[in-house]
Design a protein that fits this description.
Radius of gyration: 18 Å
Number of strands: 0
Number of domains: 1
Number of helices: 12
Shape: elongated
Order of helices and strands: HHHHHHHHHHHH
Distance between the termini: 23 Å
Helix content: 55-70%
């Protein structure tokens, strides 16, 4: 699964938790994500900022389901796990014998293979002690951190019904890629007059379907 496919399949409540946590605990990440996603849809950030918080999150989730949002989506997931899901990362690394810094941040290189028996035992423990939906999300994200993933983890993701993300019905391709309606220029001028746009750093996101985009980001739990 690529990041946009993960955001298609993951339960919306998990995405709401992710963005709510950023908004409460790390507002800069929230604002930067909103600005980057608005830019990718050729909208001014202020147009999205004027929505209610629930509508902002719903809009960002919808945008993260598009292929062009893969880099932003994977980065958000990585930061969320590294900052707010450290106990889960530590348990996974310890269970798999992966060296880390004591906070789940991987030290050195990732293994080229994962022992299937050890993986099964580790995953069983994670499902027993953590939110199963977050465990499933982490395992799908972790498998992105090596080109082609790991055979043992690929098998687990395919065969273990606990790990499968609950897929939502997908929109037809032409609807998925269709641009959102552009804001009326007069409406945007009114919105900008009422609320100044927030200045946040924005990284340009690639629009092409680049298979290497997801690989460029550091592994979850790795500095």
């Amino acid at each position: 699964m690529r990041p946009h496919e993960i955001f298609k399949a993951v339960e919306p409540a998990i995405v709401t938790e992710l963005f709510s946590t950023f908004r409460d605990e790390d507002r800069d990440v929230y604002k930067s994500a909103l600005a980057s996603l608005a830019q990718s849809r050729k909208l001014r950030p202020v147009f999205v900022q004027k929505k209610s918080i629930a509508d902002q999150i719903a809009w960002m989730h919808k945008t993260l389901k598009l292929r062009g949002s893969d880099t932003v989506g994977e980065h958000l997931l990585q930061v969320w796990f590294m900052k707010f899901q450290q106990p889960l990362l530590i348990r996974f690394c310890d269970g798999m014998g992966i060296e880390h810094n004591g906070e789940g941040s991987v030290e050195g290189t990732l293994p080229t293979e994962l022992d299937s028996d050890k993986l099964g035992e580790t995953v069983d423990g994670l499902f027993a002690d953590f939110n199963p939906r977050i465990v499933s999300l982490y395992l799908n994200l972790f498998n992105l951190q090596r080109p082609g993933g790991w055979d043992a983890l690929e098998t687990l993701l395919s065969d273990d019904s606990r790990v499968r993300l609950g897929a939502e019905p997908e929109a037809p391709a032409e609807e998925e890629e269709a641009p959102l309606p552009k804001a009326d220029p007069e409406e945007e001028r009114v919105l900008e007059a009422e609320t100044p746009a927030v200045e946040v750093p924005v990284d340009s996101e690639p629009e092409e379907d680049n298979e290497g985009a997801a690989e460029a980001a550091p592994p979850p739990g790795q500095d």
